[in-house]
Structures are given as structure tokens and as C-alpha cells.
Amino acid sequence: MQGPSEFAIGGVLETFNCTAELCKVQVPALVMRGQFDTMTETCSMALVDNIPRAVPLVTIARAGHCKLIDEPQQCAEAMSRFLAGL
Q1: What are the pLDDT digits (tens) for 9-55?
Q2: What residue ranges do the domains of the chain occupy?
Q3: CB 74, CB 61: distance < 8 Å
Q4: Diameter over CA atoms, the chain
Q5: Which of 2, 4, 6, 55 has the largest CB neighbor count within 10 A?
């Protein structure tokens, strides 16, 4: 932990920003977030908006940041839909 809690970032990560590099991702991308995720929807949308071939953001209901543990069936269905569309 680098800050006063697990939600605070300090040190070299405090100012780290790779948003400008996301345009280099040239493969289809699926971004999922949990309904109660600690990563904000704004942050998740920055990924979707800056990855050229990203599909619309998928929010997994009743899940936190560890959505694959919280709601594995919903995640599997979202991934299956994404892969079927390729």
C-alpha cells in the first residue's frame, strides 16, 4: 500500500498516466466494470474512448472491482457476446 488506504496511490504511480498510449491498442477490446467498482465510470470510459476498437462499456450488476469473483456468470456472458461479435 502506498497511501493512507488501499484506495490511495502514491509514489511513482501518483502521476502515472498512459491514456495517450491507448490509441496504440489495435485489437478489439472489452472493458468491463463492476456496478460498485472502485474504478470510476469516468476512468473506465477513458479506456473505451481511447482504444480505437473498444466496444461499449459493460457494467456488471451487483459486482465490485473483482467482478469475475463477484458475478462470474455475468462476466462469462459478456465475454461470450464480445467474442461472438468478432
Answers
A1: 777 778 888 999 999 999 999 999 999 998 899 999 999 999 999 99
A2: 19-84
A3: yes
A4: 43
A5: 55
**Secondary structure of residue 43 in the 3-state scheme:** helix
Cell triple for 3: 497511501
Half-sphere exposure of 13 (CA within 13 A, CB side): 7
The one-letter code for the residue type at 37 is D
| DSSP H helices in 1-86 | 41-50, 67-70, 72-84
Q: How far apart are CA 41 and CA 6, in angstroms?
A: 19
Mean pLDDT computed over every residue of the chain? 91
Which residue bears the cell 476498437? 53
Place of cell 472493458: 31
Rounded (to 5) percent helix, strand, coil in the chain: 45, 10, 45
